[in-house]
Amino acid sequence: MSDHTLSRREFVASAGTGAAALFLNRVPGNSVAGTNYPDMPERPLGRTGHRVRLFSLGGQAALEKPEKHDESIAIINRAIDRGVNYLDTAAAYGRGVSQRHLGEVMAARRKEVFLATKTMDRTRDGALRHLDESLMLLKTDHIDLWQLHNVRTNEEIDQIFARRGAIDALIRARDEKIVRFLGITGHYDPAPLMRGINQFEFDTILMALNAADRHRFSFADALLPLANKKGMGVIAMKIPARGRMFRPGGITMMRDAMRYTLSLPVSTVIVGCDTVAQLEENVGIAAAFEPLSQAEMARLESLTESYAADAQFFKRNPPA
């Protein structure tokens, strides 16, 4: 399912407008087939040394569907042509379909991007099997960022850090230079993720951050400041909440949705696309980005209050 499921999209964000502006730089405009495009700003991806463009391509939507092969290849190539330099996928996306589609392009364009994938397995041996499969499907000999996928509970944190847990696989892969950096991801509950990044020095975190976030189990309130304090790269997801962010009387455009999140102290946003047109729209929004004021952020948050639960469908339910 696309991250865009509505026709036109838009959105904003709260605290951190100043911080977002401070580390935003612009890079020279891209030239594709002789056409010059507006500059796409970039920010540091934490301490990795990589400077990432504001918009990054997610590996879901068309990319994880086997019947969308041609569309997927077109989207990936066009993204790189337009200056997107961070590609996100996971072993779980389409049971390998997303990685396979990316691999077709990586065979020729691997050096042009920072490539991130994930494992859902919480054991050392299972995670290493995922890594072997990822390398094969992605047609590469190394991964720039390998992440623990969708960490939801404290029990999973216990499994990850137990004897022969997944953290052993991540450290081994980094020590053997099969992966360069290590990350953790989640959108269910910020508390286990806070525990995880306090227990291990991950390089990055991928978290859910959208204009409805502050209404329930907010990732922006505690997890985001902690990640910033630790100097981690912060990748934001769930920007349009698979289209549930958009409705009459609320947020109606992707421009507002993306501008909200980019006004927070994040490195980049990842969004899955179903079409090249959606990709072009997102790149255009990122290229024209200017941080929102605190008043604009608060206004967008207020617009989501009446449907916050639906726009945060991926989070855990509040206690009864």
Helix/strand structural class = alpha/beta
Largest sheet: 8 strands, parallel
Rounded to an integer in angstroms, the radius of gyration calculated over CA atoms is 18 Å
Tally of helical segments: 12
Low-confidence stretches: 5-23, 26-35
Sum up the overall morphology in one term: globular
Question: Mean of the pLDDT scores?
Answer: 90
The CATH architecture can be named as Alpha-Beta Barrel
Any idea of the CATH class?
Alpha Beta
**Going by CATH, what is the homologous superfamily?**
NADP-dependent oxidoreductase domain
By CATH, the topology is: TIM Barrel
The arrangement of helices and strands along the chain is HEEEEEEHEHEHEHHEHEHEHEHHH
Residues in helix, %: 25-40%
What distance separates the N and C termini?
A: 30 Å
Tell me the fraction of residues in β-strands, as a range: 15-25%
